[in-house]
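Today's session is about reading a structure prediction critically. Students often jump straight to the picture, but the first step is always the sequence itself: look for stretches that repeat, for charged clusters, for runs of hydrophobic residues. Only then move on to the predicted structure, which in these notes is written as discrete structure tokens rather than atom positions. Here is the chain we will use throughout the hour.
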Amino acid sequence: MTIEIKAPTFPESVQDGTVATWHKKPGEAVSRDELIVDIETDKVVLEVVAPADGALSEIIKDEGDTVLSNEVIAKFEEGAAGGESKDNGGQVEAKAEEAVAASGAGEQLVNPAARKLAEEKGVDLSKLEGSAKGGRITKEDVLKAEKAPAAAAPAAAVAEVAVAAGERVEKRVPMTRMRKRIAERLLDASQSTAMLTTFNEVNMKPIMDLRSNYKDLFEKVHNGTRLGFMGFFVKAAVEALKRYPAVNASIDGDDIVYHGYQDIGVAVSSPKGLVVPILRNAENMGLADMENNIRDLGLRARDGKLSIDEMTGGTFTITNGGVFGSLLSTPILNPPQTAILGMHKIQERPMAVDGKVEILPMMYLALSYDHRLIDGKEAVGFLVAIKEMIEDPARILLEV
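Below is the predicted structure for this chain, in token form.
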């Protein structure tokens, strides 16, 4: 039985998507729920799996093609074994082989996904032997070649040295949809908001001592949940947002929308770019819940498993450039939010304490805010509240 493979149903905020990678080719055996294609949107990469055991009979939308919500992208033959696809599937495969030959690859057969990955990783396809039927090179072959021992490195170095004097190699790669969307939003934030940044510094010793004293007990009581620093900052931000509601607000046309809840976005780096999953109703979470959710969102962001809903909304964002070694930076707003908190690297510095010099673990904090809505007094007060709660964690518990 022939089944139509369709693009996923996109939310209202997503107009269309792009076929990123076909993981299976026509005629190749596929098991039920096995990944067959990735669809990239502005925010996430959506996976489409096989509806049953069988094989693709025809690919309608090639890699790089734009697809709409629920648009047919391929046809699937239920129960077909590998290599037993319909004639049209064979025609598609034959066309693919012809395209490979036309591109100058001779007899070498390469899956489109493998070719794309090889370009990204700098793997020379001419030196690979395909493991699939007919010697076809697959994505897995490219990954194995990339992970091969470093013995091949000198040969690559020689090839680079052999480039004629005066020649400079360039590589042009089109932006992914997500990278283009990130670029658009950052540019929009810088051009459509009156963004300003205020800075402060915080003594991390009290939090570090607290964490050192209780991390083992915390992990034991909360079933393996680790006690990190981000949970404390989210807790402090929630309390500070209650005191300064303008920092938790957003601008909608000529209106100011004050949110009676704290949905905290935590910026996370993923292979596809920076994403901001949301901790919903963070004001109702305990520290262990926050740490669990932050870790879960971070892992799924790394694996590209976040849903669009998990990255939609948010009333305030926290970003931590310190994990990459950033000492000080100016975070860019995440519209329509009106403020974003930037954490940075913890570094020991000499500080004056009661007339004496002490070496303390210090962190610079940065609060970027939209001056159209938030005045300097509110912004500075908000950041000082964060500083005071981190330097005296009892304030978070006592809400003072």
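Discussion point for the tutorial: Residues 266 and 366 are 15 Å apart (CA to CA).
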